[in-house]
Each structure stands twice: as structure tokens, then as C-alpha cells.
Amino acid sequence: MEMVGSQVQGFSNSVIVPMAACDIEDIPSVPGIYAYYISFLSRRSLGLFRGGNISEQDILSAKLILARKFKQFLALRKERRYEGSVRDAQRYSHIAPSYSIRLEEDFVAAPVDALLAMSDSSFLNAVDILESTLLLQSPVYVGIAIEQTLQDRCLQHRSDFYNGSSSSGFGSRLKKFGFEWTDLVFVASPSRAYGNELREVEKAVQLLINPILGLR
């Protein structure tokens, strides 16, 4: 994935590595902050490859994969459950009825259905546009590398995905929802800071982004 606009301040040192390319050696062995994006909205992830002949059957298969992965991604968001209680605020607390509530996010299917209903050429155009919006989306995980390097952390998450060493780890949770390691794109900002600065930056970024598979 090509880094566009690298002259913008703050992006010149950023590292973007698709896990499908298996180029983990391109990740620097330095501390820093990193994020994972799920990239299922691309020709590659849908089994479509540039430069070859794409048949109607290929498009149909791609649409089925898109529908399945969209459902998997939205299932991640449904994992966030909101619990609490409400009461009648116009009555004294000792006599006001109160109710326990449990909420989860709901979605409409219309945007996905519209993509699936497109003609073959329109669908391919839409997929290409969606792929270009990756960094406009929210990452699913944000972390820091202090005692380890950015490359070490990526290797650890990959090992967790394939070996399931920790059921609460990012890799294991990602696998639980049916995603592949190759669906990920690793984005990092290397840093010369080793101490509390990175920890506080991580907290701030977690607050700003609230990643779906973030810290539990």
C-alpha cells in the first residue's frame, strides 16, 4: 500500500504494512505506537486480482465474501454491550420505578444490499473506491511498543492469532470473529520515546478512537 501525501507533517515517518504481503521485516525494530486496520474491502480480500480476466462467477463469489465479511465486522461492533439503569427523574428516588437496560448497536442492511445489487463494473469501481478509504476508517486495535519493538509486537500478535496462546489477546479475538491475519494492515508511528510519554499517548489515542478490539 503506497503512502500518499507523506509530506504532511506527522506522516513522513509512518509505516504502513499490509499483513497479506508478509513483509513484517519492513516494520522497524524500534519503539512506537501502532494500529491495526481490517482491510476486507479490497479486490485481493474478495478474491479478485488486477490484470486478469474477471468472470461473472468471480464477481458473484466476491459479493458473497463481501456480505459475509461485512456481517463479521458488524458483529465486532455488536460485541460492545451497554448496561445500566434508568428511573423516573420526576419522582423521588425512593418511590421512582427503575429499570435495568442492556443495549447493543443495531444496523440497517441497505448500504450493503446496494453494493450487492450493483452491476459487475459498478461493483468493481465501488470496491476500488472503498479500498482507498482504509485510513478514513477507524482502526480495530491500538497499542504501543516499549519493552518490545514494533516488529516484535507484530510478531507476537501474529503468533497469538495462529497459536491461540491467549484467548484475551488481540490475535485470538480477531480469529474468533472469522477474520484472517491477511485481512489486517499494520500502521505505525516509530518513536524515540521509551517511557511514560508513549503510555500517555496510547491512553489519549484509545480515548479518541475507542477501537473495537482495544484493551479489555
UniProtKB/TrEMBL annotation:
Protein name (database record): Uncharacterized protein
